[in-house]
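We examine the record.

___
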Amino acid sequence: MTRKLFGTDGVRGTANTWPMTAEIALKIGAAAGRYFRNDGSNGHRVVIGKDTRLSGYMLEPALTAGFISVGMDVILVGPMPTPGVAMLTRSLRADLGVMISASHNPYHDNGFKLFGPDGYKLSEPVERAIEARMRSNRTDGLASPDRIGRAQRLDDSPGRYIEFAKNTFPRGRTLDGLKIVIDCANGAAYRVAPTVLWELGANVIPIGVTPDGLNINRDCGSMTPDFLRAQVVAHGADVGIALDGDADRLVIADEHGDLIDGDQVMAQVAAYWHRADRLTGGGVVATVMSNLGLERYLAALGLSLARTPVGDRHVVDHMRKFGFNVGGEQSGHVILSDFATTGDGLVTALQALAAITEDGRSVSEAGRAFMPLPQTLRNVSIARRGAGRPEPLNDAKVRKAVRDGENRLGDRGRLLIRKSGTEPVIRVMAEGEDAGLVTEVVADIVGALERVTS
């Protein structure tokens, strides 16, 4: 059965247009509730969290109504990082968790991320089963009047996540003496992240902590880190941390405002855990986007780099199958499975800080484990490509440009071209030892694509 609703990371779209409407939210709640109540018994519950988007006020009650209509109790936790929802789903012994968020996207988008009782994102077969129930328009799963579910707010949910995050930091160590800028992207972590850092002893400068429903990820957060960089320098901070709208990814800035990406963070944490004899799997799981420098650095430590297709689902699946406990993406979406079932920007930041500050060096001195190879990534929009036009990647001139690029890079680099799973763009990435050649190869392929898609 073809999946039409669920994408690479749950359901996502523009708020108040298909599929992010109140009607679809209600149907998702009812269909997912029927799936997880298939034994017909009572006592089933779902945890629902959200970020700070205005549309969350529309989607949360609609989703809640759908679950309640089929007899599931709903626990509403309000604004909460995505990893917090996954954690609470497990700790509250819920059947299901739902995060209402479009992650790093602008405020006008929203989405649903669904987690099973183990805290992991639902598998594709389960998503397909839920979608099939939506298309069937069944009403036989509706609860009788005496078995309609109830909804309640969990007032101490921020405190639960705060304690969870603090307990991941090495016992007996603090952040005393560190001045930290934390950019919460006006998103889900705007209350909890500064509190965690402050309670661990840091001098905290919070930014991006005044959400108004429309400013999530706007000129702040991990996707636009220039704001963070400037604030780190302006405040003379030791380090800066930028999260995205649902706080499942991060970037770090050193005291000079220079950025440290997810590849460097994974390298730092993996080496730190390797020294402590707690790294499992013999290395790290990353995607095809991660820099070749990371692979070479790990190899020098006797560790491997397993590559997967882009998307945290693929990374997590490989980690679970082969026993790794560190994995992630260059974008800063890092999974540390000793602590979390999905990416957790704040927890990852704490582990990176523990690794970087272990010997008292500055973040600029200790924060970069390897020298990355020159890498260029450009996006080509395909949003306006008319119906019936040929697939851009199948165009003869595009394919020739790709072949020429591969031949020019040879064994000194690599080329990756793929459609985004969350945005209407084609991503063109190349890396290699010759920065000028890498730039030229990407430019040639982008030019060919733009001539086809314009």
Summary: The chain has a mean pLDDT of 94. Residues 435-453 form the longest helix (19 residues). The longest strand covers residues 425-432. The chain is about 35% helix and 20% strand.
